[in-house]
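Service request form, structural biology core

Requester: graduate student, group of Dr. S.
Request type: structure prediction, single chain
Budget code: on file
Notes: please return the result as structure tokens.

Sequence provided:
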Amino acid sequence: MRKKQKTISKTKIEQQCLSLWSLCVRTRDRVCRVCGSDYRLQGHHIRSRSNKATFLDLENGMAVCARCHIIQKFNPERFQDTILSVIGDEEYQRLKVKSQRIWKPTVKDLLMMKDSLKLSLKMLESEYGKSDAKILEECGL
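Core staff response, request fulfilled:
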């Protein structure tokens, strides 16, 4: 009799990838790229995470503190201007073009991305210092 393999849903794998992505971005940046604070850092997608071509791309992310991130919710236009002042229009336009590609990741693609993000995290930790183990636990990693 064959043993049933445990399958993880595509949504669950995406969530794990996004958690790893955020952790990589925060490990790399260490402080809010807007104000320099290290208060409750969050990973922010420069181009929306609905753009699957760049939703797990570390270049499409920056660490922002909770206070600066809240601006995005209440005044998105002002936040967009802030992002442009931080990364520059040329980089934003490059990400915009890259994000407009159509890509529908499969479970296999996501599992490969998850492995790639884990490797990136190890490299970033060796360069910038360890990530919070508690956060890794919360991510189910």
